[in-house]
Amino acid sequence: MDPEVVKALKLQQEAHNRAIQDQDEFYQNRLAEIQEVTDKLVLTAIGDAGGEANV
After folding, report:
1. How much is the pTM?
2. C-alpha dihedral over 16, 18, 20, 24, to 10 degrees?
3. Is 55's pLDDT higher than 60?
4. Higher confidence at residue 49 or residue 3?
5. How far apart are CA 43 and CA 51, in angstroms?
């Protein structure tokens, strides 16, 4: 196979892998934010109900 084609395919694969990593990082960050908000909502609900949170 032509060395330029091989180089192009490798660059394409690297770009693809990077895009997947970036997307994965984005979703991990979003999940962390959602968990943080959920935790706050639960603690607020427990507080509003007059209970104590065991966290």
Report:
1. 0.64
2. 180
3. no
4. 3
5. 9
CB 26 within 8 A of CB 34: no
Tokens read off for 25: 């990082």
* The two three-digit tokens of residue 38, written as one number: 């959920």
Amino acid residing at 5: V
pLDDT digit string, tens, across residues 16-43? 999 999 999 999 999 999 999 999 999 8
DSSP readout, the chain? Answer: --HHHHHHHHHHHHHHHHHHHHHHHHHHHHHHHHHHHHHHHHHHHHHHTT-----
